[in-house]
Amino acid sequence: MHSTSIHCSTFDDLAQSLKGIASPDLLQLYGAFSREEAEQWAVSLSEHFPDACRIGMASQRHISNGHVYQHGATIIFSYFEKSHLAHYSAPYDNDDPVASGEKLFTPFLNANEKDQARVYIVLIDSKSTLDDAFFTLTKRNTLTISGGRAGLFDQEQSWVLHQDTLYQDRSVAVGIICPKLTQQRDVFVDSIAIGRRMRITACEGNIVKKIDHLPAQKVYQRYLTNGEKIDLSVANQFALTTVNNNIEVNAIPQQWHSDGAIVMSEALPEGAWVKFLYFHPAHSLHSTLPKIQSLNEQRPESVLVFSCISREDFINGQPTDKLNLLNQVRPLHGCYCFGEFFSTQFGTKVMQHALTYLALSEGQNESKRDITPIQVQSEHTSLAPMFNLIDNAFQDLEEEHASMSIHPVGNLNRDWLYDIQTGLLNRFSLLGRLNNRQDVYHLAVLRIRNFRLINQQYGYDAADDVFAQLTQYLKRRLSTSSVGIEFTCYRLSANEIAVSIQNDIAPIKIYRMFRQLAESIESQEFSITNQIEHWLTLSLSVGIASAYDQQAQPLCEQSHLLIKASEARRFAQMNNQPICWNGDLLDNATPEDNLEWILKIRKALENDDILAYFQPYYDSKTGKEIGAEALLRARINDKIVSPALFLDLIKQTQLYAKVTLVMLTKCEYILNHYPNTHVSLNLSVLDFKHYATLKALRQFFKRNQVNGRLTLEITESESIQDYEWISPIINEFREAGALLAIDDFGAGYSNLEKLVALSPDILKLDGCLIKTIDKDEKLQKLVQNINNLAHSLGIKTHAEFVHSEAVMQQLVDLNIDYLQGYHLSEPVSESDWLDQKTSGLPENTCEP
Question: SUPFAM superfamilies of this UniProt entry (predicted)?
Answer without folding.
Answer: EAL domain-like, Nucleotide cyclase
